[in-house]
């Protein structure tokens, strides 16, 4: 029931209020009455009633002073003011500081009085229901927090695209404190797998959970940093490093890696190798950082005495095979649903496996196939709505021992992906064709209207499809394509800044520089200088 207290210095007024309506019938419980403001204050703090009906003028403490004093301490309590005709200035002040409503004593009748009480009661019950839902939501969030964070981080590391604003919303909801400055990925890979293989399936899950918890304890000394299990006995750490120069960032990342390596050895007798990516300043670049960390392990595979490896930008083609370009092609093909582009990228995978100029390791091939599996399953979920089992193909990878095993697996995966392309709905196919057109004609003066005309659909329909299927605006994607191409030209050509702007569809050099800085955080010249 809703608890009610009456505060009025007039005895007859209190008696009249108590007898005016059948309180219990309406769901109210009169818990106290007070003859002045001071007594009302003491009783209110003790009983914490849901509703206080208070006279505006009382000895010692008046109604306005009572409401003002209790407002902060009894945040959920509602106040109804009793007043006379000459009290309107007090009533106005009481309403300003939080009173729900007021009643004129001389005009008070049972029916309007009961109606007012029920209105306030409804507000109290609605607030209670909302608070209950919020507490339930918070409880469920806390109970599922590790799983929710793991899912989000795996999407960040393996998805071909995620909307940055939506990720930030999820970060806020899951209380993730990462900020997109000096983001670094560390990939921890346990080497002595024979210890892991001794465990059964259930025990392996417990072991993975234990290792994750141990790493989380280490990360408490390096905030903000988070860990997620990516594969069996492989763990990715995402860390925002507060450091200035590149050398300081490397030192801070290696310090964390040494701590994790030592803890794994002490707690589990695990030997591990850790790859460290370069730093990035965009959340959507985390998947590239993960690949860099994996490439760092590949690059350092032959360095038996070292266990911590930093990603090197200049790869030696004769050292260890890398599939970075193939990943990018597959990612682009997923964007535009291009079967020919996908086929060529998968075939290039196989050609590199067969190419004797590249040194291949079992770990690097398995790691690349793991990444490929996650990319495909995330894409499949996004574009077909089917949530396939990621563990099945991963389990088969554990059994591979020859290059033919890997090449045949990749060819089978290619056939599966090409088959899935035929089940994409028409809306997503239209958006894919529009993206393909934009990727080809980004250097021209294209717009939503021109692209929609090219595909014989209305601009509004294309805009709606774009937002619904990608959670991204048409113009945002066009800017992303142009700036990405501008970055490539700034790194790999000697063209002048204004020339590059024209090549990517921005004939106005000032506007090009403005858009480039908004997206990357650097001017074109600063970006070019940073790449040297």
TrEMBL record:
Domain of life from the UniProt record: Bacteria
Keyword Ligase found: no
Keyword tags: DNA-binding, Phosphoprotein, Transcription, Transcription regulation
Alphabetical list of Pfam families matching this protein: GGDEF_2 (PF17853), HTH_18 (PF12833), Response_reg (PF00072)
InterPro entries, A to Z: CdaR_GGDEF, CheY-like_superfamily, Homeodomain-like_sf, HTH_AraC, HTH_AraC-typ_CS, Sig_transdc_resp-reg_receiver, Tscrpt_reg_AraC-type_HTH
Domain HTH araC/xylS-type: 432-530
CDD domains linked to this entry: REC_YesN-like (cd17536)
Gene3D superfamilies reported for this sequence: 3.40.50.2300, Homeodomain-like
Domain Response regulatory: 3-120
Modified residues (4-aspartylphosphate): 55
PANTHER family reported for this sequence: ARAC-FAMILY TRANSCRIPTIONAL REGULATOR (PTHR43280), HTH-TYPE TRANSCRIPTIONAL ACTIVATOR RHAS (PTHR43280:SF28)
Protein's UniProt name: Response regulator
Organism: Paenibacillus violae
